[in-house]
Amino acid sequence: MSVLVTGATGFIGEHVVDLLLKEGFGVIGTARSLEKAQKVHAQFNNNPKVSFEIVPELTALDAFDNLFRERGESIQSVIHMASPFISGATNFGNQLLVPARNGTIAIFNAIKRYGKKVRRVVFTSSLLALAEGRKLGDRTFTFNEGDWSSVTWETCQSDPMNAYGGSKKFAEQAAWEFVESHRDEINFKLTAVIPAMVLGPHKFAEDVKDHLNLSNKIIDGLLNSSPDQTSLPKMHASFIDVRDVARAHLIALQKESATDQRICVFKSTFGSQDILDILNARFPELRGKISSGPNPGKGDQTPSCSYDFSFSDEILGFEFKTLEESVYDTVEQVLSVR
């Protein structure tokens, strides 16, 4: 029996696949192209416990039907991570909102029809499904696992990031609504894993040659700053290390107390000054070559909201990696490759 992982070739997905293999699971990954699937399969040394299926288009409501018709009998669990993000999107509905929501409905319908042996489904959501950006800097707010962003289909379409946040909210809501509506027809339990901005090293260093994931580009931009640069990108966000996100997915898959729950996987916030302080302290060879920021050694001074994720912490039962660990490992990988 295997775990189906959609988005298995992505930044988080590759770490999830790695942990699943180490735990002895077989993995069926989805990819949007044969080329990408073959590359990642080779990176996992063509492990016979890993195979890939091509699902090029998430928008169609039968996108996963063929996969489950052919392989549904061998799938015991599903981790649904695939979700579009197009930084240059202009048609937010068709490029982000519809594919995310329809992709979720499509895989749940396929499980209901053909995945009778599936017992657990883990859905990868986002902090942006929990709270819209404007509240994250408001120290009067304290968020917990029960909160939802107040964005609507109409109000989230002002720019790609807001549209992405909306897409995550509506996709997760579609997942919970599906489970509730079809409770008598399905055999699986649902868990949502909710990470914030995901930092950390790529699973395979060679991928750094091509591109960094969107979150790590923030670190890369500061790594390429100039010594006299004091105006920094306006960055104030909650973060989590990619390896902790992967670990949380396995716990969500295996732990009974995680079923029917939203599990938040983040605590700390950071800003550009925090990253520069780490770079200058941990990489002496960079001092004098990159910016030290407007407030060296003082970290981010931006006000932040608060989080109460004690319920999630109890389920997860492990300490998250610090920002320093995450930034150091990311930059060490980047410098070793370049």
TrEMBL record:
Domain of life: Eukaryota
GO molecular function per UniProt: oxidoreductase activity, acting on the CH-OH group of donors, NAD or NADP as acceptor
Domain NAD-dependent epimerase/dehydratase: 3-258
InterPro entries for this protein: Epimerase_deHydtase, NAD(P)-bd_dom_sf, NAD(P)_dehydrat-like
Keyword Zinc applies: no
Keyword annotations of the record: Oxidoreductase
Family: Belongs to the NAD(P)-dependent epimerase/dehydratase family. Dihydroflavonol-4-reductase subfamily.
Name under which the protein is recorded: ZYRO0B16742p
The organism of origin for this protein: Zygosaccharomyces rouxii (strain ATCC 2623 / CBS 732 / NBRC 1130 / NCYC 568 / NRRL Y-229)
